[in-house]
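Q: For a teaching handout, I want to show students what a protein-ligand complex looks like in token form. Below are the inputs, and the small molecule is nickel (II) ion. Please produce the holo structure.
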Amino acid sequence: MYIDTHCHLHDEKLKDTDTVVDEYLKSGVSVALNMACCALTSEMGSKLAEKYSSVYFGTGCHPSDINGLDQTEFDRIQKLTTHPKCVAVGEIGLDYYWQPYDKEKQIDGFIKQMELAKSVKLPISIHCRDATGDMLKILKDNKEKLEYGGVMHCFSGSVETAKELLKLGLYISFAGPLTFKNANSILEVAKMVPNDMCLTETDSPYLSPHPLRGKVNGPKNVPIILNKLAEIKGLDGMVLAQNVMNNAKTLFKKLV
Ligand code: NI
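A: Here is the structure, written as tokens, with nickel (II) ion included.
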């Protein structure tokens, strides 16, 4: 019924995967997409997807890990794109928050992976932190590489930025910050984004929703985020959950 379109089950903090999977299935989350940060976590995602029927995965290199993206690493990431449960290239993007960072390398790595996604007909899962200007420019300049779509994961920007992303055909994914007490502009974004362009995620083990902030997050918490989104939009939770699941299946075509 519910879907977590961006989580990190490979993370140390979620290492008791049997329990994590069991818990989210019990809370009504039927699908979890494990997004990678590098070749190793892409491979870990593929193993998890082979073990659990509810897990699918993305393959890619996170901007903060971009210094490690040499040809060998890229080949390992690329190889996984043909896996039957590989639903996306991700997470990829720009991160100017964590210091030090190499802008040029991040931009090159991002564009190279957008090209990869297009060549293997997969959507992308985009990470963007403190880099909105460059991100919008790259996406617009490389619009043709978005042929198979994409999602801005854990969106935290303004209504104006969200509108630009929607114009590019990108989905907007909501995570724990939507539930935070200091959430403000994100509430306006949530109201504005059409129901058929919304996705839900946890980004677990990070970003636990209110009132669980500070605790280890898991896909089991998707219903908290979905219900908050439904409340903001004045919709029935079940109706929105079905909408979000349909959106995910439209974007991530390998989902069954
Ligand atoms: Ni993430």
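A: Two things your students might notice: The chain has a mean pLDDT of 97. The CA atoms of residues 54 and 64 lie 28 Å apart.
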